[in-house]
């Protein structure tokens, strides 16, 4: 693709929980920017990934999954997603094609909240039909595609596998084409706008998601309380608090003789050392904060809401 002028723009990634938005952004970035887990609604904050190429600079806005759940935290999550939509030059709606191929009755319920907000004249709208690699009989994709085209008639469609990278280059090239001309806003070696403290808290939270079962991860939050660097030793001391909303969950997080918390800390520390390219001393504490998901002040403290 030949471009006479450099392109710069913002691309919002929207979709139901567990559609693969974070996986797609991480694939384009070539490294982990947003946490990924098999559990839905992993992303709580709008996270930016900055992709710089010879032709363009694209800022991807990874957003919390669109859902119908109630509660103050969930309203904050939805507000974050809609704000990304309003600030974008292009929108990519992702959905799990393998899910709807096997459970077509879920498609209308999951995607209908997106139809009206993303529609409208002049919007560069794309639909990434994700996880097509998981559909063995491709004929099962046809009714999914037909339904999606009925729901998003103005969109361009791209079958992709965000995990394996299939079809993602074609989508990226099309995104570059529709972005407005403009100079880059960020240095070409910057990959995100989120602070390192935030990425550290997200890393710990991801390990929580991977180690805990059922609904427990959704009652937990992580806040970095201490960050002290020793440049001469190439070392950083990080102290993080894991909040949970119920007293009986504290013991589940810590585990017998502290083994689960130790496992979480070891896994997070190794990943943080790769991210920061320095040695990390990570200390974790678990505290009970009842009702934190309905506490607006606390939600803003951990980066949710405006």
**CATH architecture classification of the largest domain:** 3-Layer(aba) Sandwich
The secondary structure category is alpha/beta
Strand order of the largest sheet: 2-3-1-4-5-6
How many domain regions? 2
What pattern of helices and strands is seen along the backbone?
Answer: EHEEHEHHEHEHHEEHHEH
Instruction: Assign the CATH class of the largest domain.
Output: Alpha Beta
Unreliable parts: 37-44, 67-71
Major sheet description: 6 strands, mixed
In terms of DSSP E residues, the strand content is: 15-25%
What would you note in describing this structure?
The chain is an alpha/beta fold. The protein folds into 2 domains: 7-178, P-loop containing nucleotide triphosphate hydrolases (Rossmann fold); 196-301, GMP Synthetase, Chain A, domain 3. Helices cover 37% and strands 23% of the residues. It contains 10 helices and 9 strands. The chain has helices at residues 21-29, 72-86, 97-102, 105-118, 141-151, 168-178, 196-211, 247-254, 259-276, 296-301, and strands spanning 7-14, 47-52, 56-62, 90-96, 124-130, 156-159, 220-230, 235-244, 279-288. The strands form 2 sheets. It has a 6-stranded mixed β-sheet, sandwiched between helices. α7 (196-211) packs antiparallel against α9. The longest helix has 18 residues, at 259-276. It is globular, with a radius of gyration of 20 Å. The two termini are 39 Å apart. Residues 37-44 and 67-71 have low confidence and may be disordered.
